[in-house]
Amino acid sequence: MSHKHPVTTPRKSATFDDYTLSEIRRAAATGIYDIRGSGTKRKVPHFDDLLFLGASMSRYPLEGYREKCETSVTLGTRFAKKPIELKIPITIAGMSFGSLSGPAKEALGRGATLAGTSTTTGDGGMTEEERGHSETLVYQYLPSRYGMNPRDLKRADAIEIVIGQGAKPGGGGMLLGQKISDRVAHMRNLPKGIDQRSACRHPDWTGPDDLEIKIQELREITDWEKPIFIKVGGARPYYDVALAVKAGADVIVLDGMQGGTAATQEVFIEHVGQPTLACIRPAVKALQDMGMHRKVQLIVSGGIRNGADVAKALALGADAVSIGTAALVAIGDNDPKWEEDYNALGTTAGAYDDWHEGRDPAGITTQDADLMKRVDPIAAGRRLANYLKVMTLEAQTIARACGKNHVHNLEPEDLCALNIEAAAMAGVPLAGTSWIPGQGGF
Amino acid sequence: MPVFDLATTELRALNASLHALDKNGENAEFEVINPRGAHAVAVGIDAPVDVHIKGSVGYYCAGMNETANITVHGHAGPGVAENMMSGKVVIKGDASQYAGATAHGGLLVIEGNASSRCGISMKGIDIVVKGNIGHMSAFMAQSGNLVVLGDAGDALGDSLYEARLFVRGKVKSLGADCIKKDMRPEHIELLGKLLSDAGITDVKPEEFTRYGSARQLYNFNIDNADAY
């Protein structure tokens, strides 16, 4: 007669989970750190942890089908002779030609223009596709200065000086050789097929005092017409914003750790920088302390996905938001219709992040002439415009429910938080209480 | 010839007047007096004009220059001729850090010494320095030529790409992936032309040593990790 003892269920370590084990094996086999695109994939406190209270006895809602709720935003009112006027408070973030294909850049320009908003260049310079199809184009001024020239500077609608980005505050970039086509190599003035390193620091200034002089130069070159943005990653938002104001920014772009990158070390993406939610209130506090809130506009990016996220960012004090990853998804990134191709690359739709390898089945993060044909810039641009309109309608719906006739009238008092972490980061009460944890300094 | 006295005239008026010049017009001539270390003097020009600056300038003089010939009869602060596209800039005195940074074209002549990071990230400019240059010069230099009649400081040409470096004096140390290379006939010819363009007649190209990229860091290799 056999006898079996009860056995315990096989139990995997929470510390050494499947992903961690696979990474150890990968590192051991290759001897090189993992590089990938996109932003953090870990779960961090986010806009989902906030709720709007809505109107009630003490607040009057606006009628959704009768009463207007404005969404326009003007960027660059501090010094620029020609501020940017946008119909919606959602812009398209900087993404490079080189990292993205020409048709993808064109689609972003078309979509943004249809929706009445701006798009942004990236490392690698301005392409004709992008300038031609973008009514309002922000020109990034990056440490590498790849493709940087005064002609493009003068035909931009605004200049964005990039100090850092949320995926990698303190890090430069790398465009690996397999994505360096003849055209990309020519634009960047480097040989074809070599890895192109993008510096982490600007080559001709150091620190905020120098930056003030650099901004003076850019304004002189462009006859004080263009709004000057400063983009920072979510590192020390209170002080970074204060110093950006001091350096003379018209607009500050603040990118939290959910913000994407074309290619960076996984360890950098996941372990450096703060979540977007944690960055907004300190940034707004800095502007308020300097008497510059709404005078220097704040654009928040990193993990914006829908109109609720837009409304929450604005309620916390932002003037606008910016989307990158979500815009790529709208134009076709990680679309399940290419599942077989994703499987062939050892991944699945929704998880594909080897953007640096240039084999993107969706034809977006590639320079492969055949793959990029999968992006129809007109249809993809239409999808992006549709998505931007939906986000805007959603934000308006929430704003009206809170009794606001402009999305900028949303305020922290319209919010509560679902957990202590989000309450502390957003500076709003924990739901059901009047408790705001963490008050007393950042 | 218009004369702008920066002691009594706003910098904006000078740059606006320079920007108003017709890029296809006749060659113009401007004089700037009393610059007194002002920043962003004569920046963003895109027209044929000779600009004579009588005195020393601050940061970014001649920044992003196209076409113009700009002469500073004094010293220049950081970032002189940064991102220049074409034209010629001559500094009669010394230049501070980042001279000719990221510049795509044109000729920058520094008759005195240049400080650190001269020609950083240069993308096609020709730079001729009659004196010495400081440390980390030609860092990540992509293309163009850097000619130094004197000595170079530490870490010359660190992580450089395809730029050519010609040094007549001593090099304190070479940066990562920068090596000494042979002077072939085409380099002698090129250097002769650069010296001539800079108005230098008393120095021979054969007196220089050429440095360039070993091209060992062009594609990431874990075995080179110590070099980064």
From TrEMBL, chain A:
<comment type="similarity">
    <text>Belongs to the glutamate synthase family.</text>
</comment>
<keyword id="KW-0560">Oxidoreductase</keyword>
<feature type="domain" description="Glutamate synthase">
    <location>
        <begin position="75"/>
        <end position="332"/>
    </location>
</feature>
<dbReference type="InterPro" id="IPR002932">
    <property type="entry name" value="Glu_synthdom"/>
</dbReference>
<feature type="domain" description="Glutamate synthase">
    <location>
        <begin position="356"/>
        <end position="404"/>
    </location>
</feature>
<dbReference type="GO" id="GO:0006537">
    <property type="term" value="P:glutamate biosynthetic process"/>
</dbReference>
<dbReference type="Pfam" id="PF01645">
    <property type="entry name" value="Glu_synthase"/>
</dbReference>
<dbReference type="GO" id="GO:0015930">
    <property type="term" value="F:glutamate synthase activity"/>
</dbReference>
<dbReference type="InterPro" id="IPR013785">
    <property type="entry name" value="Aldolase_TIM"/>
</dbReference>
<protein>
    <submittedName>
        <fullName>Glutamate synthase</fullName>
    </submittedName>
</protein>
<dbReference type="InterPro" id="IPR043578">
    <property type="entry name" value="GltB_archl_type"/>
</dbReference>
<dbReference type="InterPro" id="IPR024188">
    <property type="entry name" value="GltB"/>
</dbReference>
Automatic annotation (TrEMBL), chain B:
<dbReference type="Pfam" id="PF01493">
    <property type="entry name" value="GXGXG"/>
</dbReference>
<feature type="domain" description="Glutamate synthase alpha subunit C-terminal">
    <location>
        <begin position="47"/>
        <end position="178"/>
    </location>
</feature>
<dbReference type="InterPro" id="IPR012061">
    <property type="entry name" value="Glu_synth_lsu_3"/>
</dbReference>
<protein>
    <submittedName>
        <fullName>Protein GlxC</fullName>
    </submittedName>
</protein>
<dbReference type="InterPro" id="IPR036485">
    <property type="entry name" value="Glu_synth_asu_C_sf"/>
</dbReference>
<dbReference type="GO" id="GO:0016491">
    <property type="term" value="F:oxidoreductase activity"/>
</dbReference>
<dbReference type="InterPro" id="IPR002489">
    <property type="entry name" value="Glu_synth_asu_C"/>
</dbReference>
